[in-house]
Design a protein that fits this description.
Number of domains: 2
Number of helices: 4
Helix content: 40-55%
Structural class: alpha+beta
Largest sheet: 6 strands, antiparallel
Radius of gyration: 41 Å
Number of strands: 6
Shape: elongated
Strand content: 25-35%
């Protein structure tokens, strides 16, 4: 009688243990038949020592086939993009936020001083050779472009085909109220006096169209707002 109770107790413990294992390892019902099938194959059909190289060869073949298909697809995509790029007259619009961010960083300390100096030299040369008859002498006293850089490609940029040339179309918008350009003009006889001309606001808007491997062509419409103050002597 005691032996039967002991057997029932062991069977109950074993069943509880099996249920606990089933909860913790839900894949166990699939693994047990798989292990039994593998043991049967290894025991009666082919030993495992021959399985390992066979499985490795099959896996390597599958991976190599996937790699070749992926490489072929990438190569076709590259060729298709290259064909589209060479045959379409225009390219998709590309954003230029990175270019404007770079321009903001380099404008105050690098570009503005150099451009101001270059423009000042050019303006002074032009004033010497082209002077109105009513002005006896005109001097450029101050020239500064200010700390506000122009905005490039506000609506993006794109490449276009013009004949046999590749042309990049890039919007240009410069609206600055911080520039300072001052001229001092002395009036010629019979007029007597001097005039101070001050420019502190400028608006330039248009398109920058550089040709590939050639010079840059700048087409823009300029709107300058000049403020004059006259000092009569």
């Amino acid at each position: 009688m005691a032996k039967k109770k002991l057997k029932k107790l062991h069977a109950k413990d074993a069943l509880e243990f099996f249920n606990q294992v089933m909860v913790e390892q839900p894949l166990l019902p699939f693994l047990v038949p798989l292990v039994l099938f593998a043991w049967f194959v290894e025991r009666w059909v082919v030993p495992f020592s021959n399985w390992v190289p066979l499985l490795a060869a099959v896996w390597a073949t599958i991976q190599y086939g996937r790699f070749k298909r992926r490489s072929a697809i990438e190569d076709l995509n590259k060729r298709w993009k290259h064909l589209i790029l060479n045959t379409t007259p225009t390219t998709p619009i590309e954003p230029c936020e990175w270019l404007n961010k770079l321009l903001v960083e380099v404008w105050p300390n690098y570009m503005e001083p150099k451009l101001s100096k270059k423009f000042q030299s050019t303006v002074e040369k032009r004033l010497k050779h082209r002077k109105p008859k009513l002005i006896d002498k005109i001097e450029l006293q101050e020239f500064s472009l200010g700390c506000c850089p122009p905005t490039l490609g506000e609506h993006g940029m794109r490449w276009m085909t013009s004949g046999d040339q590749k042309v990049m179309r890039l919007g240009f918008d410069w609206d600055s109220n911080e520039m300072s350009v001052m001229f001092l003009a002395k009036l010629a006889k019979p007029l007597i006096g001097a005039a101070r001309i001050v420019i502190n606001s400028i608006h330039i808007k248009g398109d920058v169209c550089p040709l590939l491997f050639q010079l840059i062509l700048l087409h823009c419409y300029c709107y300058c707002y000049c403020y004059f103050s006259f000092i009569l002597i």
